[in-house]
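Backbone-to-sequence.
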């Protein structure tokens, strides 16, 4: 009979323990301290510094070709070679031109003989006329024949001179000093008159040439200053001026070519790569800009935009409604709601709650940088202790 009371006593104890456990309050798990990246609000300017890649070209670049057609037999220059005025660049097969010159010379000889014969007739008939053996009309016919023969001689001489010039055109000469930038025909090729054979960039003024998209063409104007810098480390940046803007777009790239006149003193090498940055004389207004990652919806959908402001005194965050303006790349202009000097959470805004305690994220490898020393936001003590404890 003693076992039954013991069982009742044990059951009573278990029931009391369960009752106490049900009445006790379970402690909530503390929310982890989140580390956030902050940025300090500061006024800036809208619009990035636009730079265009281009190259240096000669102000005058000619495509030289023979003035007569024929077969190219030799070429005396290579791309990149500097040539002087009058230097031979290429030659044609001149045998046909020589034969044509010989034919023109023979025509001159025949015309000379006809002119001399007509002149002798005029002298003979003039003597007969003086003795009244012939009429005046007969003498006039002989004088007309002499004039015709003289005209034929003049024509033959002009043809000989033209043919002699064509014979000299078998040599392609540089019309000015410059650099050969390209070859368009090779020996053995038959070319017509005027067909480009050699491209020559003449010495003298040079331009920086680059292309701009259609939406940026209106921002450039003739005479505008352009800061031109070179990829070569030893070359100093120079200031040029826009001298030409293409009136129509390139049919392939749909961009507009811009030529900037460079100063002649210390002109860079042809083909050098440049970075052209147009200089705008108007100062841009000071604006507050934030990255898109710092924005979140305020309340529900359609209730505006807000950012998380950091309160250094309480190490917590609160929502701040803002009014947004136009976008500028990956940033957006803030029209109202922020003042310079405020600290805004830059990333991870979707995991925060109003009044939540946060720590300041700081890269341990950047603790000694000037930016870290001057910044007002420092890592929370709890976060530093956790990092140091977790470090091996």
């Amino acid at each position: 009979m003693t076992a039954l009371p013991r069982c009742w006593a044990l059951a009573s104890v278990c029931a009391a323990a369960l009752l106490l456990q049900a009445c006790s309050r379970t402690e909530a798990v503390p929310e982890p301290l989140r580390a956030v990246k902050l940025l300090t609000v500061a006024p800036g300017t809208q619009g990035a510094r636009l730079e265009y890649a281009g190259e240096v070209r000669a102000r005058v670049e000619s495509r030289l070709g023979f003035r007569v057609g024929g077969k190219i037999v030799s070429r005396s220059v290579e791309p990149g070679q500097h040539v002087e005025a009058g230097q031979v660049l290429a030659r044609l097969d001149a045998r046909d031109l020589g034969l044509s010159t010989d034919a023109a010379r023979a025509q001159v000889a025949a015309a000379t003989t006809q002119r001399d014969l007509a002149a002798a007739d005029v002298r003979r008939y003039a003597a007969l006329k003086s003795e009244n053996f012939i009429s005046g009309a007969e003498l006039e016919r002989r004088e007309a024949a002499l004039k015709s023969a003289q005209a034929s001689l003049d024509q033959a001489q002009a043809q000989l001179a033209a043919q002699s010039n064509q014979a000299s055109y078998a040599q392609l000469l540089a019309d000015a000093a410059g650099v050969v930038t390209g070859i368009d025909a090779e020996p053995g090729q038959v070319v017509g008159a005027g067909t480009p054979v050699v491209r020559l960039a003449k010495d003298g003024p040079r331009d920086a040439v680059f292309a701009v998209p259609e939406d940026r063409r209106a921002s450039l104007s003739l005479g505008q200053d352009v800061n031109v810098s070179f990829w070569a480390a030893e070359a100093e940046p120079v200031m040029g001026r826009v001298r030409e803007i293409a009136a129509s777009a390139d049919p392939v790239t749909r961009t507009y070519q811009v030529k900037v006149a460079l100063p002649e003193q210390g002109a860079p090498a042809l083909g050098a790569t440049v970075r052209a940055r147009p200089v705008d004389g108007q100062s841009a207004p000071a604006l507050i800009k934030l990255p898109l990652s710092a924005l979140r919806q305020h309340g529900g959908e359609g209730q505006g935009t807000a950012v998380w402001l950091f309160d250094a005194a309480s190490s917590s965050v609160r929502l701040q409604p803002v009014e947004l303006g136009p976008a500028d790349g990956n940033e957006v202009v803030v029209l109202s709601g922020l003042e310079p000097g405020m600290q805004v959470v830059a990333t991870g805004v979707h995991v925060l709650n109003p009044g939540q305690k946060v720590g300041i994220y700081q890269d341990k490898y950047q603790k000694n940088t000037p930016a870290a020393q001057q910044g007002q936001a420092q890592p929370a003590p709890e976060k530093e202790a956790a990092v140091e404890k977790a470090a091996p």
